[in-house]
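Hey, resending since the last one bounced:
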Amino acid sequence: MRLRLRPFRVGDEDDLAAVCLRTGDSGADATGLYRSPRLLGEVFALPYAAWSPETCVVLDAGDRVVGYVVCAPDTTAYEQWFRHAWWPPREARHRGDRADGGRDATIVAFARRIGEGPVPFVDRYPAHLHIDLLPEAQGHGWGRRLIDTLATLLRDRGVPGLQLTAGTRNTGAIAFYRRLGFAELRRTDDGVTFGMLLDDVTPRH
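The structure tokens again:
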């Protein structure tokens, strides 16, 4: 499998949603765990590609995308757009999912809370990201390259810092972010928030 990084382009959306689902159970495959297989993608991947496609990078295997990093350079502005423009028409489609009391309902409730209040740490870390790689693309340095490429894009736009949150069960991701030099900003029962000041980032190859 020959892989390469490239910018997101229109037409990648189905692949992004598929990767998001196949890594959506704390890094493991979430296929079959949700009534709506597109729900995770509509919350954690596709809105970023719609709002800021220029800061979305994909890992292309030739016939499909097998990984990506998506990013909102201005988290506060992104969350308001998500809350008022992106999510309302999609929530209407997931009304039954919200009522089922299962995993779908949890994600729908999470999406409804986006943009409700101020975002922590945005003064120093205004951007935030999501990154996912299918198993066949893991362990070969592509995650690091995706982060490095995104960091360069953000620095070129004058963004001073980048944050992300990993679920507490996703121990592999937590270890990965620490290896890349992300600093732990906050820990809760649900997740660990990391931040990186982009002036501190030195691309690695």
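The first strand starts at residue 4 and ends at 7.

Sorry for the duplicate.
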